[in-house]
Amino acid sequence: MKKCLVLAGFITIICSSCSGPTKAGKEARVNAHRRMDIVNADLAAQQAKQQFEVGQLDAAEKTIDAAIARFNENGSYYLLRGRILLEQHQLDASYAAFQQAVTYSPELSEPHYFLGVLHQRWAEDKEALKEYILAMELDSSHPQYLLAAAESYVALGKQNEAIKLLQNASQEYQHQPTVASLMGHIHLSQGNHEEATRWLEDSRMLGNDHIGISTTIASAQFHAKKYGDCLITLARLEDQTGELSTVFQRIRGKCLASTGRVIQGRDICLRITRETPDDVGAWKDLGYIAWDMGDYERLGRCGTKITHLDANAIEGQLFQGIAAVHSGNMEVMQDILSKLKSDNDTIGIHVLLENALKSAKLRTETVNTPNMPSNSAEGSVDQQTAKLAIVGTDSNETP
Questions:
Q1: How many CB atoms lie within 10 A of CB 363?
Q2: Which range (113-127, 257-271, 329-343) has the least confidence?
Q3: Given its phi and psi angles, is residue 7 left (phi above 0), alpha (psi -120 to 50 degrees) or beta?
Q4: Which end of the chain has fewer CB atoms at under 10 Å, N or C?
Q5: Which residue segments constitute the domains of the chain, with CATH numbers given?
Q6: Helix, strand or coil for residue 171?
Q7: Which residues contact 293 (CB under 8 A, 6 or more apart)?
Q8: CA–CA separation, 253 and 233 (whole Å)
């Protein structure tokens, strides 16, 4: 009887064990599988990232898709997928991936940044700005987000908002040369050349010492009338490049003339006209310097050459008219200058003409040797006008 009872007990135990796992056991098994899926998905994502970084885009896409198939709730996987698709120029699919990244991992800043990049590509600057600002709010330590937001303000024509944004962040990013460089370029776009020079110099001092920043600084200094500083920058640029371009040689000549070294400046501009005889701007530079020196014979030749190269250039008739004043040919002078005044609405031309006509009037009252600098009232008015205009009216030709 006892043997029967023991046997029955064993049978009961075996049968109870055959009834299947408990609820807790099932949950433990599911969690174990989930943990394995996450581990395997992470390994696949790391592999996909490595493939992406070495340019194996197709392989990276397949690998990250496999990771998402194993575990589809990690926003960083969709972020990587979006970047891969973006590199493959699949913009719509990339946009969808970045949106999924935001959905699953709203704490990530990068998806917002790349959504901004896509909006910017589609010329949707307002939407791009919103995404860049969201990225900044999620990660205030990333300078690229700040720069992108500021550039979006500029694209929207809101330069002052861009400056305010950069200034408010200047303490945090005070050692970022790119921030100072962007500030300089924004001020340049507004015509604030002196302020632009300050920011661009800060950028250079922080390590941004490539050729591009030197050329921009030289241009800003020239337009800010910091001619001595500009000459120093041009010397540094020449060391960097080995030889200055024609444009910057012209700037050097004008800076020398504007700092009292008129003959040196004249010689540079004269050489450039010989090397590039079809460069109208070079003849304008030489003409203004000749005017300042009182070399009216050369001034007249410059005017004739300019008219030959570009009949619409104001300097052609202006230089010929001033030369006519000093050759005593008042009839030619009156004809040229009156025609120039009536046919031209260029900013500043009326000031030049009024001074030229004053010079002509004074010439009729005084006797001066043609083609020589004059110490009389006539020479004073004439050369003051030349000094005001010595940088030329072709500012658009300078970088």
A1: 23
A2: 329-343
A3: alpha
A4: N
A5: 184-244 (no CATH), 262-393 (1.25.40)
A6: coil
A7: 262, 263, 266, 373
A8: 14
Q: Write out the two tokens for 382.
A: 């004439």
pLDDT at 286 over 90: yes
Enter the pTM of the model: 0.71
d(CA 320, CA 334): 11
| pLDDT tens string 28-81 | 554 555 567 678 778 888 998 999 999 999 999 999 999 898 888 899 999 999
- Three-point CA angle 128, 133, 138, nearest 5°: 130
Mean pLDDT on 262-285: 94
CB 253 within 8 A of CB 269: yes
Integer Cα distance of 361 and 341 in angstroms: 17
* DSSP states of 229-250: HHHHHHHHHHHHHSS--HHHHH
CA–chain centroid gap for 249, Å, is 23
Residue type (1 letter), 240: Q
Residue 275 CA to residue 17 CA, distance in Å, equals 101
Q: Going by C-beta distance under 8 Å and a sequence separation of 6 or more, which residues neighbour residue 14?
A: none
